[in-house]
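[recover] target loaded
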């Protein structure tokens, strides 16, 4: 794969844009809030299986003044790992190869606002993906595997605010609940169309 320079540039651009938006209005800091997570993703298709890492970075525009507020998020996602596809030519009936995908992402959500920069939230998201598959496929293609573009849709929840708040309170009581800081804070159910297949699965991540 030869997309690493493009990934680095895309990631830097997304982070700088997120930072700029998040501090655009210091007088109303909670109207625009950043989000960033990194975790693992497992997806299963009819004849494929993928497992790897998934990260999101972006910013959310929070609307309204109620305790539960709608939000509109923009950002980017990147994922990489191993994709296994059925291939009758293989001794065990399948072939494993690397994959990489990245692209812009939009999200709609609801946030339980409590005065902090990080809020508990639920959301749906959609991303347009640029996909880069293992270069070996150029020399030895697999039927039904290929393509350079993809889509991702997900529904998820992030509970970092509630978990970290509980962990902080319990730490002051010498409780062992400080381990909550190390627990996953986001879960997604996702559908991905890339590499020539549709796959469904889940993501567990750390972040806010």
């Amino acid at each position: 794969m030869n997309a690493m320079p493009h990934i680095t540039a895309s990631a830097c651009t997304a982070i700088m844009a997120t930072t700029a938006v998040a501090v655009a209005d210091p007088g109303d800091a909670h109207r625009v809030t950043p989000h960033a997570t990194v975790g693992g993703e497992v997806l299963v298709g009819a004849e494929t299986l993928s497992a790897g890492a998934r990260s999101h970075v972006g910013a959310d525009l929070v609307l309204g003044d109620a305790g539960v507020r709608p939000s509109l998020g923009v950002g980017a996602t990147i994922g990489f790992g191993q994709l296994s596809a059925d291939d009758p030519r293989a001794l065990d009936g399948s072939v494993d190869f690397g994959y990489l995908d990245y692209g812009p992402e939009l999200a709609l959500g609801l946030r339980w606002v409590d005065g902090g920069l990080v809020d508990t939230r639920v959301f749906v998201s959609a991303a347009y993906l640029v996909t880069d598959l293992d270069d070996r496929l150029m020399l030895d293609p697999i039927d039904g595997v290929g393509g350079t573009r993809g889509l991702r849709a997900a529904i998820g929840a992030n509970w970092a605010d509630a978990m970290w708040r509980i962990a902080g309170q319990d730490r002051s009581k010498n409780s062992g609940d400080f381990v909550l800081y190390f627990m996953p804070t986001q879960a997604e159910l996702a559908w991905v169309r890339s590499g020539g297949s549709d796959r469904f699965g889940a993501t567990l991540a750390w972040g806010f």
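[recover] notes: DSSP finds three helices and eight strands in the chain.
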